[in-house]
């Protein structure tokens, strides 16, 4: 545990020594701020129209509409950003040779992997925390219509989804010593896993159901509606465990191959 | 302290180590000699527990490297080739991190880091970024991280490669000063380095042990001739004639000349130092003698001899 903490601190320092983390934060906040502003403006626009013409039949719930779209957009932005964060985690150590030292210290491989995993997760987590300003702003605009429960459930889903993204990124970073390659394949893999459910309706029967179940996107849907289903939580956790396990296998096989 | 039994490592079809066995006593400094690709690094990586052997067994301090991997790693300080460090960290921060993962108790960390920095003389650069240090300083920081948990065993892979002569001497002195207190295995290309630092040498070639001995014995055994370099202003033909006439001279080669000054390599029989005789001859002939020195054989040359002898 102490060792995981040591690795975690080193990785955090590495992220914040370089301009990397700051650049990501700035771009992320710009984009998400833009999406939020557009989302809330559209809602305001519709609510004016709805008041003028009663036949619209009332408005959809505020929080669900605004934040569901926001979380969807944000998760796409993060899908692009997570590989940038994770690609260096093992590839850089392999390239620089520091891996050899790290793996000869009295420390378990799992401690190394978890330290790196939680460091990347903390960087993303902090990004999400910074966006807590949006619900507060929304309350200022929409008053009681802002339901914090729904927003928090969405945040939880987003956080779990990011953990899954990071697990994939770390795994792929461990397979190569080239950071760019690690980044590109992570990006491709994430897009595929994220969108694999799109084929659900075209592929009939069991395969379609399996595809739908695999999709990161499908499991996220309920969270953004304010529903926390333990099944979905378990899906994300298992997903992470699986890829962390795979990372350990890769580290092990690297040792054998030298 | 370290026993290696029948160590074999294969990478696919390539046999990097082939049934290598040896022992290292406590407090001994052992040199690994061998050309690139001989298997030195592979052997060191197996001893440190970085990679498992294909066959064979290694124990360090009585513990099996494969079974008690973590325990063995606590006994070893390791400096891989080219000292790979985290270039983005400052020296002190880096050493602090290493002390943490090496399990130095929290209350001792600051003191331990300070002591080690003193020992390898990097205190004056402690706030500099590792990546911006000179090669010599990086090597010392590498040594510092190896020393952090006070390991009884040190494994150093080419600790002096790429350093300037002054730095080489400093690192050697540092290693020598630790002899007796720690068991040390170091690898190198350079024979004089081994004779200066190590008590015993293992020569590895193509994954097998070619020779094990003290540096002195090894040099004696492997040198079939002595060489000296002479720098003299003399007519080429006369010089050759006179030198060849000396008893004990096996051959001469003129390697370089510039404005009538010749650089000549003289081969003589083993065990005979012809320097006084050569000097007398040259001066007696009235030639200007600019230099005369014995050439120490490099490992590579000895190696070529060792291999061609067989």
Please describe what this structure looks like.
The complex is a heterodimer of chains A (258) and B (310). By secondary structure, chain A is mainly alpha-helical. Chain A has one domain (2-257). Chain A contains twelve helices and no strands. In chain A, helix 6 (109-130) crosses helix 12 (230-257). The model of chain A has no long low-confidence stretch (mean pLDDT 88). Chain B has 310 residues and is α/β, with parallel strands linked by helices. Helices cover 36% and strands 31% of the residues of chain B. Chain B has eleven helices and 14 strands. Chain B has helices at residues 40-47, 69-75, 91-101, 106-119, 135-147, 165-178, 191-197, 215-222, 236-245, 275-284, 299-309; strands at residues 2-11, 14-24, 29-33, 55-60, 63-64, 76-79, 153-157, 183-188, 200-205, 208-213, 225-233, 249-258, 261-269, 288-295. Chain B has a six-stranded mixed beta sheet with strand order 6-7-8-3-9-10, sandwiched between helices. In chain B, strands 2-1-4-5 form a four-stranded antiparallel beta sheet, covered by helices on one side. In chain B, helix 3 crosses helix 4 and helix 4 packs across helix 5. The radius of gyration of chain B is 24 Å and the shape is globular. In chain B, 40% of the residues are buried. The chains are: A mainly alpha (258), B alpha/beta (310). At the A-B interface, helix 1, helix 5 and helix 12 of A face helix 2 and helix 3 of B.
| Spatial order of the strands forming the largest sheet of chain B | 6-7-8-3-9-10
First-last Cα distance of chain B: 33 Å
Determine the N-to-C terminus distance of chain A: 28 Å
- What is the alpha-carbon Rg of chain B in Å? 24 Å
Assess the beta-strand content of chain B as a share of residues. 25-35%
Major sheet details of chain B: 6 strands, mixed
Oligomer: heterodimer
Structural class, from secondary structure content of chain A?
mainly alpha
Please, what is the average pLDDT of chain A?
88
What is the annotated CATH architecture of the largest domain in chain B? 3-Layer(aba) Sandwich
Low-confidence runs of chain A: none
Number of strands of chain A: 0
Shape of chain B: globular
Q: What order do the helices and strands of chain B follow?
A: EEEHEEHEHHHEHEHEEHEHEEHEH
Q: How many helical elements of chain A?
A: 12
Given helix and strand content, the structural type of chain B is alpha/beta
Biggest chain contact: A-B, 27 and 34 residues
Number of domains in the coordinates of chain A?
1
Characterize the largest beta sheet of chain A: strand count, sense, and whether it forms a barrel: none
Number of strands of chain B: 14
């Amino acid at each position: 545990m102490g060792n995981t903490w040591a690795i975690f601190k080193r990785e955090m320092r590495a992220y914040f020594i370089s301009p990397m983390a700051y650049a990501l934060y700035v771009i992320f906040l710009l984009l998400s701020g833009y999406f939020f502003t557009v989302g809330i403006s559209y809602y305001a626009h519709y609510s004016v129209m709805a008041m003028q013409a009663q036949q619209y039949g009332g408005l959809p719930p505020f929080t669900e509409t605004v934040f569901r779209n926001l979380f969807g957009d944000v998760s796409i932005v993060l899908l692009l950003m997570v590989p940038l964060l994770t690609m260096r985690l093992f590839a850089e150590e392999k390239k620089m040779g520091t891996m050899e030292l790290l793996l000869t210290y009295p420390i378990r491989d799992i401690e190394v992997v978890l330290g790196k995993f939680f460091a990347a997760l903390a960087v993303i987590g902090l990004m999400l925390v910074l966006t807590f300003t949006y619900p507060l702003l929304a309350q200022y605009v929409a008053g009681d219509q802002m339901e914090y429960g729904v927003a928090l459930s969405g945040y939880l889903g987003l956080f779990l989804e990011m953990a899954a993204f990071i697990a994939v990124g770390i795994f792929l970073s461990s397979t190569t010593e080239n950071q760019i390659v690690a980044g590109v394949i992570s990006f491709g893999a994430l897009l595929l896993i994220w969108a694999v459910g799109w084929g659900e309706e075209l592929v009939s029967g069991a395969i379609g159901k399996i595809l739908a179940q695999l999709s990161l996107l499908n499991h996220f849907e309920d969270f953004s509606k304010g529903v926390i289903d333990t099944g979905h939580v378990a899906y994300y956790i298992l997903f992470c465990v699986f890829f962390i396990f795979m990372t350990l296998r890769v580290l092990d096989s690297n040792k054998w191959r030298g | 302290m370290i026993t290696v039994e029948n160590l074999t490592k294969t990478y696919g079809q390539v046999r990097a180590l082939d049934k290598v066995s040896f022992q290292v006593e406590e407090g001994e400094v052992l040199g690994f000699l061998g050309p690139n690709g001989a298997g030195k690094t592979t052997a060191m990586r197996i001893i440190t527990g970085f990679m498992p052997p294909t066959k064979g067994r290694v124990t360090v301090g009585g513990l099996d490297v494969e079974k008690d991997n973590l325990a063995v790693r606590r006994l070893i300080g390791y400096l891989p080739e080219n000292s790979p460090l985290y270039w983005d960290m400052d020296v002190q921060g880096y050493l602090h991190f290493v002390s943490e993962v090496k399990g130095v108790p929290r209350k001792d960390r600051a003191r331990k880091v300070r002591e080690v920095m003193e020992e390898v003389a990097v205190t004056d650069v402690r706030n500099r970024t590792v990546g911006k240090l000179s090669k010599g300083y990086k090597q010392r920081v590498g040594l510092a991280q190896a020393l952090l948990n006070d390991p009884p065993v040190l494994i150093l892979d080419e600790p002096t490669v790429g350093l300037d002569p002054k730095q080489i001497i400093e690192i050697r002195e540092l290693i020598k000063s630790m002899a007796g207190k720690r068991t040390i295995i170091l690898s190198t290309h350079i024979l004089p380095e081994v004779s200066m630092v190590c008590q015993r040498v293992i020569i590895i070639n193509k994954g097998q042990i070619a020779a094990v001995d003290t540096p002195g014995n090894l040099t004696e055994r492997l040198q079939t001739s002595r060489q000296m370099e002479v720098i003299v202003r003399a007519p080429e033909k006369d010089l050759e004639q006179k030198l060849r006439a000396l008893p004990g001279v096996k051959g001469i080669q003129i390697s370089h000349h510039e404005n009538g000054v010749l650089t000549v390599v003289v081969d003589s029989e083993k065990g005979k130092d012809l320097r006084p005789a050569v000097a007398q001859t040259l001066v007696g002939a009235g030639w200007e003698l600019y230099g005369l020195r014995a050439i120490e054989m490099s490992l590579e040359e000895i190696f070529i001899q060792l291999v061609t002898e067989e």
